[in-house]
Write a structure and sequence with these properties.
322 residues, globular, 9 helices, TIM Barrel
Amino acid sequence: MSLKQGLLLVIFLKFLICGFSQEVKKDKTPTEINFGLYQIAWGSHQFATQLKKTIDLLPKKPTYIMFFRDMHLKREFPSEFIEIINDIKAKPIVSLELGIWGQKNKNILKEIIAGKHDPFFINWFKKCKKWKKDVYIRPGFEMNGDWFDWGGDPKKFKQSWKHIHALSQKEKCQNLKWIWSVNCRSFPDKDWNKIIHYYPGDQYVDILGVDGYNWTNELPWRKDTVTQSFNQVFDQTMKDFSKISKDKPILITEISCAETKSLKKSKWIDNFFKKVNHYPNITGFIWFNYDKRKEKEPDWRINSSESSLKSFKNGLKFPFIK
């Protein structure tokens, strides 16, 4: 090989290596990650007041606001809460529980498939269509857990999802964005209960969602909870998502960290913001901003301590957080 040929080969190889590494980086790192907040919705005045108090603590406004609803006929499409969210120029995420609050119903999936609850969904979709702007819906979240009536039956869950989706299509409710949202760990952790078995198909889902918390091992919630970093909480789900769908955007639909004597929540939050954009396809996260100590759970709020609030505010200053 001549000197000239050798130089050309070196230049060519350098071009290939640099070009490849730039392409991988572009593919692996999202250009931006949108943040959101969960706000409990007991009433519209309480909702607006608490939301404003939280947002006033932060250096930027959230892209998403999430709240829970059930299937009670009297509650219908939650226009009053969605209007409040729209007023602050955020996007509403409705986490729809498949059932009625305070009522156990192990047959809820069977009833949905049979059409028993069609009047609720049809009315909901009609009113959503009139809203015209985008609404994100998250039906039957954490279906791979053992704590909800709609969990633990992959076949019936998929049938229910498709039935609800078909009703929205029949009503031509095209402003709905569908979030299929799992728990970061399956309970029980058995092959039949893996999240892939609950996936209804790309044509029925717009966004992949996952709920995950650092519970720590110092709380009397579940005997199997452990202290975990952000990566330890979400890494396996991200690997599973890559097998389920290559192109769907990913939203962390619930995230927070407990604060205990041996764990600084602020340090966990610092680590979270440094790592969150290392996973491909993550486009946003929803911080579960609620104090659940009365329910024997942690205080999940961003301002559970001065140090955790400071870390959260600092994290929002990263240029990729929108």
